[in-house]
């Protein structure tokens, strides 16, 4: 029987999605962070659940050859990064395997996953940082989501973001009028502030943005109409407008739609229609145009059932699904694969050093 605080030695057999290593003790799965497959570790049990346990890493007894020196002095304390202890190519191998496993386990799909496209910048890539002030301290959260780590510099953020963080640290922050002892700040690069309204969704890795757009462009089959569902301020719509006769952008955040429309006017793009509303309600009143491709880039929760139902009913010739969450992607692909062939799965490392992964998939309607 395992007990809390018990120290155990175990072999790591895998690194699961979320970044935790998988080991076993007396037939029970034990998750431990900051390890690699093949390592032997000493760990201390912290939580015991019905089917598994969680542990804290105490010592690496047999290290992996793929270990690297973390650049950040807050690594392991701050919850922002999970993989700084591994060399970058190893991080990409782990993410590709996790994606393949997730598609099989949740989606029932045994399909080819292409190698993960690396980020040109493995560090210093983030154009945005959310930082919290609590009772006079500024920082990022630890894994427990309530302990504040007083981060002075974030190694995955761009230098400009770190300069702004240093300026914020020098400022005297007064508690908000609500009387709460807590306040959130979003630090963004000047370029991002120029491009997007304050609460708009932003792709955070500028060095990967052109690669992501090009990936979607390469996957796009000849089409007359592109429906860009969850279009934000037109990250894809503005670039793809030249490839089709018409783009229909759908987005719930009105300021993003307004910004997209303005930018399209500036670029003299007359073939983009911008619709503010939920994808669920807008699609429900949109008949599928002939020669139509549907581009989906939903939030982490994936697509709501009415969206999947609409796709299965209206069957656009191609669906390009951009996802930042392999689990909900696998769930949605399982339903869509009854009518569509998953043609390509292209993972992109938008978030080096972290557990996150972006995936672009092309689906082609079966029996066209
Ligand atoms: C992952 S972001 C993608 C945005 C855009 N494609 C980009 O790359 O910048 C998801 C977007 O979907 C929007 N959104 C969330 N739920 C929505 C819904 N039900 N209907 C329409 N838009 C939604 C969010 O506001 C956000 O802009």
Q: Can you summarize this structure?
A:
Helices cover 25% and strands 28% of the residues. With 368 residues, it is α/β, with parallel strands linked by helices.
The structure class reads alpha/beta
CATH architecture verdict of the largest domain: 3-Layer(aba) Sandwich
Counting DSSP E segments of at least 2 residues, the number of strands comes to 17
Bound molecules: S-adenosylmethionine
Strand content: 25-35%
Distance separating the two termini: 57 Å
Biggest sheet layout: 7 strands, mixed
* Overall pLDDT confidence: 96
CATH class of the largest domain: Alpha Beta
Q: What would you call the shape?
A: globular
The CATH superfamily of the largest domain bears the name Vaccinia Virus protein VP39
CATH topology of the largest domain, by name, is Rossmann fold
Q: Approximately how much helix is present in the residues?
A: 10-25%
How do the helices and strands follow one another from N- to C-terminus? EEEEEEHEEEHEHHEHEHEHEHEHEE
Number of folding domains? 3
Write down the Rg: 22 Å
Write the layout of secondary structure elements.
Blueprint: E1 7-11, E2 14-15, E3 20-25, E4 28-33, E5 40-48, E6 52-62, H1 88-105, E7 128-134, E8 137-141, E9 148-149, H2 159-170, E10 182-188, H3 190-195, H4 209-219, E11 225-229, H5 237-240, E12 246-251, H6 254-266, E13 272-276, H7 279-284, E14 292-296, H8 305-314, E15 318-323, H9 326-336, E16 340-348, E17 358-365
Parallel strand pairs: 4-6, 11-12, 11-14, 12-13, 14-15
Antiparallel strand pairs: 1-5, 2-3, 3-4, 5-6, 7-8, 7-10, 8-9, 15-17, 16-17
Helix pairs in contact: 1-9
This protein binds S-adenosylmethionine.
